[in-house]
Amino acid sequence: MDFIEREREATSLWWYEVALVPGLLQTQTYAQGFIDNRIPPLDEETVEERIAARMERQEILTERKPPEGPDHERVAFMEGAFASELSADAGVVSRVTERLSMIRTRALDPDESARFIKRMVSQP
Questions:
Q1: For the whole model, what pTM was predicted?
Q2: What does the pLDDT look like over 44-84, one tens digit per residue?
Q3: Can you point out the beta strands (E) in 1-124?
Q4: Residue 100 C-alpha from the chain's centroid
């Protein structure tokens, strides 16, 4: 089973991105720029197919149906510049969950984040 199938069945999603808006939250314009500017370039048909697929994925954010996964298996997806890995190994999932939990304990809440960004933008 691949990541997209697991994403559709998930009861919750956690992710951490350093430099990109996660695919599930990308606007069509952002996805277009991201997908259309790769090297080697993709043909126009492939670009359009990938953008449409990315936009279709976002339906899971508004659907009101129960999860399809009966066993609620926990998985971790790690994506890098040259390789990606989907793992159901309990040790891997535990390590990834620990790291994300540590990041969450250090993160600002939404209001504090907005104030922090405003301060950074207004600095000379």
A1: 0.69
A2: 999 999 999 999 999 888 887 655 755 778 899 888 778 88
A3: 76-79, 84-87
A4: 13
